[in-house]
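Researcher: Next entry: Phage tail protein I (Pseudomonas aylmerensis).
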Amino acid sequence: MTEPKASLLPANSSPLEKALDLGFGYLLERVTPPFPQLMDPDHTPSAFLPYLAADRAVNEWSTTAPEAEKRLTVKLAWPTARQAGTRQALENAAKGLQLSPEVRAWYEQKPPGVPYSFAVRAWTDLPYSETIDARLDRRLADAKSERDILSISVGLSAFGRHVIGAATLCGELTTIYPSVLAGVEAAGRAFMVAGLYSVETTTLYPQEH
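Model: Predicted structure:
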C-alpha cells in the first residue's frame, strides 16, 4: 500500500478525524480520475451531458433531444457565447440543432436590407416541427446582439436515388421443314411479346417558413 498524501488537517485534529482522512485518502487513490474525458462533450457519458450543459450556461436545452444534438449543443456553447452578436454565433446556434445555416448580413443582400439585420436560412433533412422552430428562435435570440433584426426561414431538403430498370426480351423463330412424307402434317404456335416502360418524375419544392 502506498503512503497517503500529506494531510491538510490542522495539528489539533482528533484521532477520529485523522483516521477518516487516512481512510478516505486510500479510497480516493483507487478511483481512476475521470478527467479530461468527463469535460469533453464528445466523450463524456450521456448521463452527464445535462450537468455539462449547465456548467457551460446552456439556456435552451431539451431532455428529449437526440444524444448527437445534445453533445453538439454543449460543444458549441462556449464558442457561441464568446462570439455573441457575430455571424459565427448565429451559425453555431443553428448548428446546435443539427441544421445547416446560411447567414447573410443586410449589406450582403440584394437589394440591401435594413441596417443591422440578418437573414438566416437553415436547411435540414431531419424531421422539423413547431417545437424545433421555437427552439431555434430562442437560440438565435441568445446569439444575436440587441440591435440585430433577424428574418428566419427554414428549408426542408430530401435526398434519394433514381433507379431505372430495363429488361430486354429476345425471341427467335425457327421454322423446320421436315422431309416431305406422304400423309404426315406438322403444326406449331407463334408467340408475340410486348413490353411497356414508363418513368414518373416528382419534384418537391421546400415550403418557405
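Model: Note for the record: The longest helix spans residues 67-82.
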